[in-house]
Amino acid sequence: MSVVTTKKGQLEALKLMLSKRIILRLYENDTFPNYYYENKDYREASGGGYEAKVLEPGKWKFGYIADNPVASYPQQVFEFTGPVGLVFGYYITDEDNKIVRWAEKIADGPYEVLRMGDTVTIVPRIRLPRIELEGKK
Fold first, then answer.
1. Who has the most CB within 10 Å: 31, 72, 87, 115?
2. What per-residue confidence (pLDDT) applies to 3?
3. pTM score of the predicted model
4. CA neighbours within 13 Å on the CB side: how many for 29?
5. Residue 39 has what pLDDT?
6. Rg (CA), the chain
7. pLDDT, position 6
8. Distance CA 76, CA 123 (A)
9. Which of 132, 127, 130 has the alpha carbon at shortest distance from 7?
10. Helix/strand/coil (H, E, C) string of the chain?
11. Is the dihedral of CA 32, 128, 91, 26 positive or negative?
12. Contact 25, 92 (CB under 8 A)
């Protein structure tokens, strides 16, 4: 017997996951996110006027790519007032910064933040894979 999530069911699960405020954070360590990472595995950017950004639930756009549910948020621009160093990616946490929801290494990064006016632009997004689980009869 298999457990299969439905296309619409997965989309609703994604909407539920994004129904509360979450926080977009930039990270400075050269790491590739993985399934087991926690907050301690990311070194959040600091200095240079950096501030994490709050992502509000009502601004997400939902759809499908190759039958997989996706959500994307409007472009977020971090503008700096001074040096931060290298930014390798972003990670999303709950509002209390206790749980990492997901993370992404910047494909064309890292971005070097050296001076006032430097920017890093992120389009937060998440795509769920199709889920099928084998069960016992």
1. 87
2. 74
3. 0.90
4. 12
5. 93
6. 17
7. 86
8. 6
9. 130
10. CEEECCHHHHHHHHHHHCCCCEEEEEECCCCCCCCCCCHHHCCECCCCCCCCEEECHHHCEEEEECCEEEEECCCEEEECCCCCEEECEEEEEECCCCCEEEEEECCCCCEEECCCCCEEEECCEEECCCCEEECCC
11. positive
12. yes
Dig out the tokens for 99 from the structure. 């749980």
82: its two tokens: 């001074």
Q: Encoding tokens for residue 112?
A: 């070097």
Match 């017997």 to its residue by tokens: 1
In this structure, which amino acid lies at residue 134? E
Is the separation of the CB atoms in 97 and 86 below 8 Å?
Answer: no
